[in-house]
Specification:
Layout (H helix, E strand, L loop, with lengths): L1 E7 L7 H12 L4 E5 L18 H11 L3 E5 L9 H10 L12 E7 L7 H10 L6 E2 L5 E3 L2 H4 L8 H20 L1
Parallel strand pairs: 1-2, 1-3, 3-4, 4-5, 4-6
Keywords: Oxidoreductase
EC number: 1.-.-.-
GO molecular function, one term: oxidoreductase activity
Length: 179
């Protein structure tokens, strides 16, 4: 059984990225366990916390270190990824010398109402994540544009997006297993 942890950078009511995450979970191969690494309760990281690292942050790191691969589902805010995503990544690498990301397979997906999906936010994440020692899956990518036309009110994705999600998560699971 391969275990994929996922972080969703938006927890807004009706979030299209929450819907995309649910689609990816539903499309994961049968022999894959998908684990929600919820970031909603994480405090804002600051270096002053390294000396007395909060338990909620340590628990998050422990849950992340137990997975075989990490999927980041990110929205795009003002042509960048949201602070919540960066905060989660920072926590996974702190205090210094205790990063759980070294060697971890990582990929990114996202959706937005705009035509280009989350290309800008994903591009920025692709710039710095490899510097943290992750094993990054470069392709395929999943940046879904026009989210308002892709997801039904009940959160289900259209057939094309569902198929793209199936291929994407299957490719990531294969990438993780190839280790």
């Amino acid at each position: 059984m391969t275990t994929i942890g996922y972080i969703v950078g938006s927890w807004a009511e009706g979030s299209v990225n929450q819907k995309l995450a649910r689609t990816l979970v539903a499309q994961a191969p049968e022999d894959t366990q998908m684990v929600d690494l919820d970031i909603r309760e994480l405090p804002l990281y600051g270096r002053h916390l390294d000396e007395d690292f909060p338990q909620v942050m340590q628990d998050f790191k422990d849950r992340a270190s137990a997975v075989d691969g990490l999927l980041i589902v990110t929205p795009e805010h003002n042509q960048s990824f949201p602070a919540a995503v960066k905060n989660a990544v920072d926590i996974l690498t702190r205090p210094g010398g205790t990063s759980v990301l070294g060697g971890m397979p990582v990929t990114i997906a996202g959706t937005s109402p705009g035509r280009f999906g989350t290309i800008s936010s994903q591009s920025q994440l692709r710039q710095f994540l490899p510097m943290l020692g992750v094993r990054f899956m470069g392709s395929p990518n999943l940046a879904v544009g026009g989210a308002g036309d892709v997801f039904a009110e009940d959160g289900t994705a259209d057939a094309q997006t569902t198929e793209r999600a199936r291929k994407f998560i299957a490719a990531f699971v294969d990438f993780v297993r190839a280790g």
